[in-house]
Write a structure and sequence with these properties.
This protein is an alpha/beta fold. It is built from 4 helices and 5 strands.
Length: 155
């Protein structure tokens, strides 16, 4: 039914558990997986006139976020390999995470977005997480929202 599934991750324990569930779902469909980590755009300090020497450069920040993206997506890629599923990992930069998820899903011709009901901002929210809610309201691509019954250990 689904041929290409976008699975999102933000590196949190909740998101990692959700991504593993997404791989299991993709395995049932024998679908290709695109795993996506969205990093925030580089922000210049607005509170000073001169950038402090300890503040990372834009290049250093991008390199660190690309490394973080690789680390956050690694377990999903490995899970796909265990299921013999084609998989590609991607790190994108954006001010608005939800809009970037929708944009990537459309550009990469995904026919399903698989994401958690909550991510980093997590369990303090009563309903859906803000990113999930925004993705649902901005895309025409089907979205499967995975909800964990309890918060995973952060080990």
């Amino acid at each position: 039914m689904y041929r290409k599934i976008l699975i999102t991750t933000d590196g949190s324990a909740v998101s990692s558990k959700t991504a593993c569930a997404g791989v299991a779902f993709a395995a049932q469909m024998q679908a290709e997986v695109l795993v996506l980590f969205v990093a925030q755009e580089y922000q210049y300090p607005i509170y000073v006139e001169i950038v402090p020497p300890s503040y990372p450069s834009e290049d250093d920040y991008r390199a660190a976020m690309l490394q973080a993206g690789e680390e956050h997506t690694r377990t999903v890629v490995q899970a796909c390999q265990q299921h013999s599923l084609p998989c590609r990992a991607m790190t994108a930069f954006a001010e608005h995470t939800a809009l970037k998820i929708v944009e990537v899903a459309e550009q990469q011709q995904c026919d399903l977005i698989f994401m958690g009901s909550h991510g980093r901002s997590g369990w303090g929210q009563l309903l859906l997480g803000s990113v999930t809610n925004k993705v649902l309201s901005h895309t025409r691509i089907p979205v499967l929202v995975h909800r964990l019954i309890k918060e995973p250990d952060s080990k």
